[in-house]
């Protein structure tokens, strides 16, 4: 039974495993997954809630900012998230270190990775 050994090793690894998403991934699906938002000033906020209303979503950050965004793969925020551009991390949002590490281990590829479109039972991954 080769299964359990591998699982034990996985638990010990400190660096998060690389995950791959498609470049064309939908913005809402992406932010729903990574729960981070880059503001226009280049500050990375933690997302507390996303309320989808059709092609728009109201986002609430942990520092209690609320704003409405359009679901566009080509928006500034979508681009910044894919390129992982940010100047600083919001102190009020208290984005945990592990989340930033996970984010930095996230890769965006054109032909490889999840589109996040099919919902699998992947909790807290
Ligand atoms: Zn914030």
Question: Notable features of this structure?
Answer:
4 helices, 28% strand, 27% helix, alpha/beta, 125 residues, five-stranded mixed beta sheet, two-stranded parallel sheet, binds zinc ion, single chain
Textual characterization of the structure:
The chain is of the alpha/beta class and 125 residues long. The chain has one domain (20-108). Helix content is 27%, strand content 28%. It has four helices and seven strands, in the order αβαββββαβαβ. It has helices at 3-12, 27-34, 76-83, 97-104; strands at 19-22, 36-38, 43-53, 56-61, 66-70, 88-89, 106-109. Strands 2, 3, 4, 5 and 6 form a five-stranded mixed β-sheet that branches. Strands 1-7 form a two-stranded parallel sheet. The longest helix has 10 residues, at 3-12. The protein is globular, with a radius of gyration of 16 Å. The model has no long low-confidence stretch (mean pLDDT 86). Bound molecules: zinc ion. The site of zinc ion has 7 residues, from loops.
DSSP strand content: 25-35%
Rg (CA only)? 16 Å
Helix content: 25-40%
Strand-pairing-aware structural class: alpha/beta
| Overall mean pLDDT | 86
| Number of β-strand runs | 7
**Are any ligands bound, and if so which?**
zinc ion
Shape: globular
Oligomer: single chain
Distance between the termini: 24 Å
Low-confidence stretches: none
Tally the helices. 4
**Count of structural domains:** 1
The main β sheet shows up as:
5 strands, mixed
String of helices and strands: HEHEEEEHEHE
């Amino acid at each position: 039974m080769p299964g359990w050994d591998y699982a034990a090793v996985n638990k010990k690894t400190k660096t998060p495993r690389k995950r791959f998403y498609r470049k064309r991934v939908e913005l809402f699906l992406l932010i729903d997954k990574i729960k981070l938002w880059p503001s226009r000033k280049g500050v990375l906020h933690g997302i507390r809630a996303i309320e989808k209303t059709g092609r728009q979503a109201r986002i609430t950050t942990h520092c209690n900012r609320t704003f409405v965004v359009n679901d566009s793969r080509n928006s500034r925020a979508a681009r910044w998230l894919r390129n992982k551009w940010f100047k600083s991390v919001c102190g009020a949002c208290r984005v945990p270190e592990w989340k930033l590490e996970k984010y930095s281990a996230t890769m965006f590829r054109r032909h490889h990775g999840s589109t996040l479109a099919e919902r699998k039972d992947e909790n807290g991954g």
